[in-house]
Amino acid sequence: MKKYFQFEELGTNYRREIIGGVTTFLAMAYILAVNPNILAAAGIDKGAVFVATALAAIVGSLIMGILAKYPIALAPGMGLNAFFAFAVVGAYGIPWQTGLTGVFFSGIIFILLSLTGIRETIINAIPVQLKYAVSAGIGLFITFVGLKGAGIVVADKDTIVTLGDFTKGDTLLAVVGIVIAVILMVKKVPGAIFITIIASTIIGMIAGVIEVPKSVVSSIPSIAPTFGVALDPILHDFSSLLNIQFLVVVLTFLFVDFFDTAGTLMAVADKAGLVKNNKLPRAGRALMADALGTTVGSVLGTSTTTAYVESTAGVAAGARSGFAAVVTAALFAVSLFFFPVLDVITSAVTAPALVIVGILMVSSLKNIEWDQFEIAVPAFLTMLMMPLGYSIASGIAVGFIFYPLTMLLAGRRKEVHWIMYILFFVFLSYFIWVR
């Protein structure tokens, strides 16, 4: 086992990998409660979605851990589930069954692109300066997500955002958690983020901010209402798929998942020290894990499965190999029986982990050549638009549009990979016709 996962080469051990895997799970366990609630708004059975969410996470994380050997966990992605429920079903009026078919088609296309090596080629063609910017941007993004989820940052009609009410229990618990995390990190305590999550949960229960679970074990809901439904339109009513709206749905799922996953892979791998010569080893396998997770997840009954940026919390806790992803997958399997316990892991508890990880990821900014304006512009916009646009993919799109332009204007066109010019038109088309 140690030899397969390259423990010695990566300087890790079972303890670090287990703590890292558990930390990643705790940081992303909220999806087991959130995803069913969001997709239920589209009319899908909540119990079935809960099971589909856990199973999709298990499949994706196992493939990532065993095949790609990266400490990255997968699960149905936030943002895409909201797009599924409120745009595809709500605004477009497309039945949720057909929506799942759209996810299935995007997954099949992902698989084909991964098998041909196109996705891996694109990732390796991205200049190292933009990879650093993507890493920093994701750091800012997940910090903002953490602060927003905990109520430390809230919406404001006059200033767009402002500080929240620190007298509220959830917000105060998150602040206490951040203080604990900072102290433990400064003192270089091993597993600081994991300890913070556990400590915050206990403090929240004692203070009455977090409800003590009424039960520990519950029966697993039936997945029958959603299982295989994605295939029904293909088998029985294929003509219903031959329209522009369905094409837009598939393209949107394709675009967002492709570049969300690419950005997450680059950021997590860079933070774990796994990027070699500006290339991501076994990138094709990692992308295949994402593609298979999406395809399997759609058949089970959930929206697009993607690599989770919360995996950086596990990396910060010590994870370096695919064994951590296997641990996370195992915990998702166990969670099928212990949903009442997981339900108490709130955004206030996970916020400190996201803030600390954000701080660690922004350190990549030191590697960007800020004195070269043609580099600084796309790097800055990539980093800035992720939190402001509330989308990793949008940040990548804006930065990748500006990079070829500034490099051309600076007379450095030969330094730009030809794929970056193609991506320029792809992203431009996305903003004009799709988004």
Task: Give a concise summary.
The chain is mainly alpha-helical and 435 residues long.
Describe the structure.
- The structure is a single chain.
- By secondary structure, the protein is mainly alpha-helical.
- The chain folds into 2 domains: 7-149 and 208-343, no CATH class; 369-435, no CATH class.
- Helices cover 67% and strands 3% of the residues.
- The chain contains 20 helices and 4 strands.
- The protein has helices spanning 7-10, 14-28, 31-40, 46-68, 80-91, 96-116, 118-125, 128-150, 169-186, 192-207, 232-236, 244-271, 283-300, 311-316, 322-335, 339-342, 347-361, 373-389, 392-409, 418-434, and strands at residues 74-76, 153-156, 160-163, 305-307.
- The longest helix is centred in the middle third of the chain and has 28 residues, at 244-271.
- The mean pLDDT is 87.
SSE inventory with pairings:
Layout: H1 7-10, H2 14-28, H3 31-40, H4 46-68, E1 74-76, H5 80-91, H6 96-116, H7 118-125, H8 128-150, E2 153-156, E3 160-163, H9 169-186, H10 192-207, H11 232-236, H12 244-271, H13 283-300, E4 305-307, H14 311-316, H15 322-335, H16 339-342, H17 347-361, H18 373-389, H19 392-409, H20 418-434
Antiparallel strand pairs: 1-4, 2-3
Helix pairs in contact: 2-15, 3-4, 3-5, 4-13, 4-15, 6-12, 6-13, 8-12, 8-17, 8-18, 8-19, 9-10, 9-17, 10-17, 12-19, 18-19, 19-20
Determine the fraction of residues in helical runs and give it as a percent range. 55-70%
Arithmetic mean pLDDT: 87
User: How many structural domains in the coordinates?
Assistant: 2
Radius of gyration: 21 Å
Residue windows where pLDDT falls under 50 for at least 5 positions: none
Query: What oligomeric state best describes the polypeptide chains here?
Result: single chain
* Overall morphology: globular
Strand order of the largest sheet: 1-4
Q: Tell me the total number of β-strands.
A: 4
**Class from helix and strand fractions:** mainly alpha
Helix segment tally: 20
H/E element order: HHHHEHHHHEEHHHHHEHHHHHHH
For the largest beta-sheet, the strand count, sense and barrel status come to: 2 strands, antiparallel
What's the N-to-C terminus distance? Answer: 45 Å
Strand content: under 5%
